[in-house]
Design brief:
It holds the Pfam family LacI. GO terms for molecular function: DNA binding. InterPro entries: HTH_LacI, LacI/GalR-like_sensor, Lambda_DNA-bd_dom_sf, Peripla_BP_I. This is LacI family DNA-binding transcriptional regulator. The chain has 3 domains: 2-44, 434 Repressor (Amino-terminal Domain); 54-155 and 286-314, Response regulator (Rossmann fold, 3-Layer(aba) Sandwich), CATH 3.40.50.2300; 157-284, Response regulator (Rossmann fold). It has 12 helices and 12 strands. The chain has helices spanning 2-8, 12-19, 27-40, 46-53, 69-84, 99-111, 124-129, 157-170, 186-201, 216-227, 240-252, 286-303; strands spanning 58-64, 88-94, 116-120, 139-142, 151-155, 177-180, 210-211, 234-237, 262-267, 280-283, 310-313, 316-318. The radius of gyration is 25 Å and the shape is elongated. The relative contact order is 0.12.
Length: 327
């Protein structure tokens, strides 16, 4: 910085103000300093800066199975929001999620000196691991924990499932069958509860759900079972990939969608509008989730203590060609 100051003919403090985007720098002075930075190839030493400020400007993220659309999109939203706020992100992606693995990942990030962590914790086992967070480490959980001192940002899974189920009931279907996700996932639980609640509120029968694992294969197997049943006219799959499997199975069995059976998914993955037929689905706004996570985490970091917050993001509903009124 001293070399840049000498090259630009300004003080060390002026260079610091330019680097930190301080507003009280004249435009011509800023241009002169930036030109000197370019000529000298200057790069700030972030390690040295962290020693002085006691902040690494790095946030940790712990996640599981980033091949799935939800976790992958959540991480992307978090990373973009962090970058906008001037932070780097260090990500630990776990192959299997349990209390020990999550604790080890958080400890690893804490040893790196991250200023705070976001834990994408869609499973009960991950949420339980948050009970042993290092003292004083700012943290936010995506989807959930019941600890009173850990902030949570989540999407209203129950509301999304109600939107899907009510849409199908409004189309004149007597009831709605459900292909659920894995039992340990909180999204599974929320979507099951919302589906069941919508049917019960309407006074409709509640069929036994068909268990899945988020994969198209699971949806395909469920779809074959549904095609063999009498009276099935509407299906709500707990994610779009399983809905894709359902569509394939119904097509192979000669069942027309939506003329004979309407199908709704959940997530609104980019491919959903190109399914055959285009899929009606629940849209989750992962960019908003990421932005809220970073906002909540930075408030904790700036305050110097954990301030519990719970932010719930409402889903929206996208109607396409896979649903139609019952005939």
């Amino acid at each position: 910085m001293a070399d840049v100051a000498k090259e630009a003919g300004v003080s060390h403090q002026t260079v610091s103000r330019v680097l930190n985007d301080h507003p009280n720098v004249r435009a011509d002075t800023r241009a002169r300093v930036e030109a000197a930075i370019t000529r000298l190839g200057y790069r700030r030493n972030l390690v040295a800066r962290a020693l002085v400020t006691k902040r690494s400007r790095t946030l940790g993220v712990v996640s599981f199975d980033t091949t799935l659309y939800g976790p992958a999109s959540t991480i992307y939203g978090i990373e973009q929001a962090a970058r906008t706020a001037g932070y780097f992100v260090s990500i630990v992606s776990l192959k299997s999620i349990d209390a020990d693995n999550v604790r080890d990942a958080i400890d690893y990030l804490a040893e790196q000196g991250v200023d705070g962590v976001v834990v994408v914790a869609p499973q009960r086992s991950a949420a339980r691991a948050l009970e042993s967070l290092p003292a004083g480490l700012p943290a936010v959980a995506v989807e959930g924990t019941h600890r009173a001192d850990v902030s949570v940002v989540c999407i209203d899974q129950m509301e999304g499932a109600k939107l899907a189920t009510r849409h199908l009931l409004d189309q004149g279907h007597d009831t709605v069958w459900h292909v659920s996700g894995p039992h340990d996932w909180m999204e599974t639980e929320g979507r099951l509860e919302g589906w069941r609640a919508a049917l019960e509120e309407a006074g409709r029968p509640v069929p036994e759900p068909l268990a899945g694992d988020w994969s198209p294969r699971a949806g395909y197997e469920a779809g074959k079972s549904l095609a063999a049943m009498d009276g099935v006219t509407a299906v709500f799959a707990a994610n779009d990939q399983m809905a894709l499997g359902v569509l394939r199975a119904l097509s192979e069995k000669g069942v027309r969608v939506p003329q004979q059976i309407s199908v709704v998914g959940f997530d609104d993955i980019p491919e959903s509008e190109f399914f055959s037929p285009p899929l009606t689905t629940v849209r989750q706004d992962f960019d908003v989730v990421g932005r809220h996570c970073i906002e909540v985490l930075l408030r904790q970091i700036d305050l110097g203590h954990a301030a519990y917050e719970r932010l719930v993001v409402r889903p929206s509903f996208v109607v396409r060609s896979s649903t139609a009124p019952i005939r």
